[in-house]
């Protein structure tokens, strides 16, 4: 019998999509538990990496997913494209539940779901040519070798490289160029949704802006939806329409980026934003910095109630015993999982 998990979202606050927009992607109660490693012959507690995540993503929208390292962002992204199997919950794409489809059943849908990995060189086969790397998804989908190579040349032009690079190998490219190849591969099958798993964090700062601008342009030209996973909140603000903040495997705040950045409701969101440098030195000196005490709790032994209460400056007794649900705050364009959200 499969374990049951409590739904983390108040029914009245499920969607922050505006205007009754039908979601391209809908995630409900997504859970991923990894078995604990054995230590000195003893089995360790299982690790709940993702703990009841609910998300919706509209066609043509870019949703940012932010949070500290180890909070479950990448695990969530990999489950959405079925590189990892969920322990519980559902993933619906274009209204169809794809959570438990077999590889054969998933193949027609997989072409519309692609991923860009964090480390471009680690995600590209060093023994294959660029032509083979980009063409492989097309060959799997049944394209001819010639058609796949022609498409690879088109995609290289689209991402700012050229057909003259088709027969080169990944080690011959810089990090930024290699990531462009990874983007071209993700675009090969004509996807509708791309999970971008920290696509610029492994790149030099001078190159990051080029790759971000490229993805922004491609999203607008091709009508793509992105789940943009990142640490850099400045980059997220630049490219995303909405933002979801993740802590200890759970979404603690999600909604319109302007409202979230201007008036964060959750204490953890406030702390994250207070760490983003401001370009104005005078404003940087005046603003309040929120310093969180201690480290995030282990997902193998999460605290009771609100997972953030051991580090929260506003925590009260109810926070230690009752897990808060995501509820509408402010104008209704976002939700926050906090018993005492900020409302200014």
Automatic annotation (TrEMBL):
InterPro entries: AAA+_ATPase (IPR003593), ABC_transp_ATP-bind (IPR050319), ABC_transporter-like_ATP-bd (IPR003439), ABC_transporter-like_CS (IPR017871), Oligopep_ABC_C (IPR013563), P-loop_NTPase (IPR027417)
Keywords: ATP-binding, Nucleotide-binding, Transport
GO molecular function (one): ATP hydrolysis activity
Domain of life: Bacteria
GO biological process, one term: peptide transport
Pfam families: ABC_tran (PF00005), oligo_HPY (PF08352)
Domain ABC transporter: 25-273
Keyword set includes Transport: yes
Signal peptide: none
PANTHER family documented for this protein: D,D-DIPEPTIDE TRANSPORT ATP-BINDING PROTEIN DDPF-RELATED, TRANSPORT ATP-BINDING PROTEIN
Entry similarity comment: Belongs to the ABC transporter superfamily.
NCBIfam families documented for this protein: oligo_HPY
Protein name: ABC transporter ATP-binding protein
Lineage of source species: Bacteria, Bacillati, Actinomycetota, Actinomycetes, Kitasatosporales
